[in-house]
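Hi W.,

Here's what went into the run:
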Amino acid sequence: GAGVSQSPRYKVAKRGQDVALRCDPISGHVSLFWYQQALGQGPEFLTYFQNEAQLDKSGLPSDRFFAERPEGSVSTLKIQRTQQEDSAVYLCASSRRAVTYYYGYTFGSGTRLTVV
Amino acid sequence: GNSVTQMEGPVTLSEEAFLTINCTYTATGYPSLFWYVQYPGEGLQLLLKATKADDKGSNKGFEATYRKETTSFHLEKGSVQVSDSAVYFCALSDQGGGADGLTFGKGTHLIIQP
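Here's what came out:
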């Protein structure tokens, strides 16, 4: 597609509910990142995929957070037993290269998760 | 670890005013530096970047120079427009890092009044 697509755009979850957030990167993009952006803050790194391999998950805040990219394209970020502190915008970004620091990436519009 | 500090907003200016948004960083390696912009209701967009000391990134009238001696990457524009109203994020990517993930500042909300 023309850009990075994320769905749903908005999600309201009851505390304790499991949620799944989807990211469709630009076709052919090798690198995929997930970020969490709390209200009034900058995005914070969660995890990184190169094709289907999850090379870095050091930013995932707890074992309730899980991400996958089984075929090296679409990625899903799953949050189990959601808590209020999980409320944030979840951003996905992709890059056509493995070495991204020079080329940068394209961000999606994000999924705004509200846990009530 | 890596960190980015940028001036807090909101910053309110009149149209055609000169803009400076300060950004300083700390990094364990030799970072690339970026400015991203987030317009209302839209995703983050890369505004400009610089990958080595003394490089100047520029785009849409915005400029920022990579200053290694002062660990700074201040964003400037000579004459702002109402359409520049947005949230601006300074960020770095540590070239020595494995994932090349970005470390962002907290963002500066810029409001331009006609």
